[in-house]
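Hi,

I'm pasting everything inline rather than attaching a file, because the server keeps stripping attachments. The sequence lines come first, and each chain or strand is labelled.
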Amino acid sequence: MGKQLAAVLGTGQTHHRAKRTDVSMPGLLREAVDRAMEDARVDWPDIDAVVVGKAPDMFEGVMMPELFLADALGANGKPLLRVHTAGSVGGSTALVAASLVQAGVHRRVLTVAYEKQSESNAMWALSILPPFQMPVGAGAGGYFAPHVRSYIRRSGAPEHVGAIVAAKDRRNGALNPFAHLRQPDITVESVRASQMLWDPIRYDETCPSSDGACAMVLGDEAAGDAVVGGAAWIHATAMRTEPTTFAGRDQVNPRAGQEAAAALWREAGISDPLSEVDAAEIYVPFSWFEPMWLENLGFMPEGEGWKLTEAGETAIGGRLPVNPSGGVLSSNPIGASGMLRFSEAAKQVMGRAGDYQVDGARTALGHAYGGGSQYFSMWVVGSAKPGS
Amino acid sequence: MTAAETETPLSAPLDVGFDYTRSVGPVLGRFVNALRERRVVGVRGDDGRVHVPPVEYDPDTARALTDFTDVGDEGTVVSWSWVAEPLDGQPLQRPFAWALIRLDGADTCLLHAVDAGSPSRISTGMRVKARWADETVGHIRDIVCFVSVDSPPEDPAPAPPPPPVAERAEGEPVSTVITPIHLHYMHSASPEESRYLRGLAEGRLLGQRCPACGKVYVPPRGACPTDGVPTTDEVELPDTGIVTTFCIVNVPFLGQRIKPPYVAAYILLDGADIAFLHLVLGCEASEVRMGMRVRAAWKPREEWSTTLENIAHFEPTGEPDAPYESFAHHL
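And the predicted assembly:
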């Protein structure tokens, strides 16, 4: 028995900032939800279920936040699910919501993901030291920097490739009215001149710490057909997981990501991703993860992802625009960052991406990863119905 | 029974705490700023009910609510529960009742403390009134507790000091409240890790080999993550190895225990199949290389305990670097 067709009916997000002290946590979510429901032209009675996601509870110190968010999410009397897969959670939350439609259980599902980083300190929360351990850990940057070094050594990529990604994504972010960092004048040279934080990762090559939320309304085939201007149809979805550490684990090109991508392209009927995908929103919290994930996702052969970046082909107007919205490097409300990738992919194929619209985008990738590169979630959305 | 199964696992306290900062938003903001003026504000829902504390969104219609209304600071106990032994951080430090109190003019209940003295002096239906703090700051603690209207306590409970207040410009309303949260755990190591830690206390590095794939794990896991079988073969490893990869941490952060800059490196001990994070010192950070041969620099024996911190750091041995091909599969 096959899946039912499902589509994105509308998307919404907050203005992402370092501190959104003007709104409560429920108010932050509602800002994104209200925009998504308006974009989807639906009202509360149209929503059958709500799926909410966020990264570790330690970030805001609220256990089971979905309980106190139920009123704000109009979830009283409806199924309300919470999803948690670390930084990939925005993506996996969207996929859980999609599965409720694809399974034929619900007609329209509201899904939302968020982080209000200003209520705590993620660097601290990611560096808690259990007894007996060596206190070497230094947040997400300290975790990923050695693996970035491994990538550079393995691929022979020139040192400036990371800066190319950072300058491109920040300039893209300047086209996005919702982005946290909007830096139209940033250059490869200015990125390379910024402070080295976790050598080999520089300050301008790291994502900001943001308050923000993202929401989408997903619907079934009839709901998708009714979208004025066309819905974003879900062509394929994939999630994979692997342990954080095991002997022989490939930390640069994790197997879970490779296998998720292979399953994704197979389901979408895509044999040559680089030629058949028009835009990609890839989870790149540190600049070097663009070339790394280009390889992991199968857009480029192993060791050659950086060549696409260096050639300028991942900029808007290039062969594969990557993160035209500005990506995680421009806005990072951690729990929402994955859903932003998924919704920005949908906006591209719906023709609703404004100043960073990729001309003629018909097929787009949304991607998220989380934990120590152990959770992967991704989808392919298209302007045409699958199979048509 | 293996040795690991007969030895008691090691345990130690793990305390985690942070002063979380809550943005109260336009609705709870109205509530806490009114408390600062010794008033209680509720909000009227779409069905006409008055919610106290005010809710930001109607529980039935999900609509944002804005119809604020003052309610009384006296009300009726709807239900209660006796706290015979108050915990740190609770409103009163002598026995009290948690009560659901419907304030006059409200349709929902506020949870707060009642300073009743004994459980015989509180009952459902009892009339209570707010006891306001001497100094109000814009926080639910501006109400110290509630007391009986007819027979308030003759010896009022001592009021705790006011809660911490977020910085704000003089005269500005409260937009953020500080919520300190502290969790106290007893963290236990697994039997296998405990054996490894006891080995460290004797200056030994103990790993385990998977009987299926032959990989050597240090610290030992008890089970192979690849094959899912118990790892029972103990292997003693030398304190020499290589740096597989590393970063130089230049970032200071809250709770950091090593002063930056420092080299955080994955160390692969000779004979092990998995690397662990440690420090590399004894040379300039810029001289640390992938493949560099290193040896453990142990702290003085009298400082050893059951921790990897017995090794102060790793330092270069001066031997030729390991060829990249020999460790590429460990990256």
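Residues 273 and 299 of chain A are 6 Å apart (CA to CA).

If the labels don't parse on your end, tell me and I'll reformat.
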